[in-house]
Amino acid sequence: MNDPVTWLGAPRQAAQQWLKADEVTAYAEHSIAQYAAMVGQLADWLHGQRERHLLDARTVDLDAFLQGLQGRGGKPASVATLKRYRSLMGSLFRHLQVSGLRSTDPTQGLRPLEGRLVSTERQAPRLLSAAQCEAYLRWVMAEPEANWYELRDKLLRCLYLGTGITVSESRALQLQDVQPADAPQWLRIRHAGPARHIPLPTWCQEVLERWLPVRHKLEGTGSLLLPTRRRAPLAGTRGRSTAPDDDPAAPLGQPARTAHDALPRPISTSEIYEIVRPAMQAAGFDDEQQGPQTLRNSFAARQLLAGTDDEVLQDWMGLRTRFTLDALRRELDAQSQRTAQRRPV
Fold this sequence. Notes:
Blueprint: H1 4-9, H2 11-20, H3 29-50, H4 59-68, H5 79-98, H6 130-142, H7 148-163, H8 167-172, E1 186-189, E2 196-199, H9 202-216, E3 227-231, E4 260-266, H10 269-282, H11 292-305, H12 310-317, H13 323-342
Antiparallel strand pairs: 1-2, 3-4
């Protein structure tokens, strides 16, 4: 992964080797493929537009690359896409510098994203259609539960669509925020004011009931409902983890004893996105906004279509105004009109 010849001639392969050997983050296979493709796109652009490569790229080159990034339909890339590329480039060039393949990190002088030209037109809220929601749930429920973190991931995917909670709220959830003996079950969201209580749909309750006994047996992980996991180095590897991502973990209900282990820390935001993106892709949601916010919008849209009162929904979601709900109504109306236009006459 530190071979300059590979970085020059096969940057995608070099990026894959680098990401697989990362000692801090256990990247999922689909994330490795995605990030390697992004590195490859940058390398191709540098070669074609600037006659440069990753090992001699300048700050001005990276600025121009970000400025020229395009999204769907040839429109300027979204801020979310720019942030993903910016974050990846930061990690990439720090690695190249630490490895001795570069003397400097060209990302240090990049202009702030806030200073870039982005569309001032407010984008319509992204959400899954009714059919995509059903496909999302089918995929989630069919996923295996062979170890504790697969069951945790399944619950997390269910909570985003079933309750509309935010990333920060999901990371802060405590064991005492769910009461399995209640009927119906509610999820408690604590914040500065009075706590909010969101009802759990049946399909979410069922996953939660399977998760709680497993969670209680993960020793030394505090009171977090959804703790993170680590991939610990194996003996004889000089601190480098060589355990594959599909290493078997501890059986359900037992503390992890293999290379994968639970930690008393919240799941990182990047890991959360890695957890939900495959489910959204499997549901046919082919959009840049593959993340919890789109699932939150989808939760709200499902409630609006079911006739849930605005004030009740605002309370569940912690919304101070009806702005978000009104925007979702407009998008639902627009989707309905587009569907009607596609029908044969």
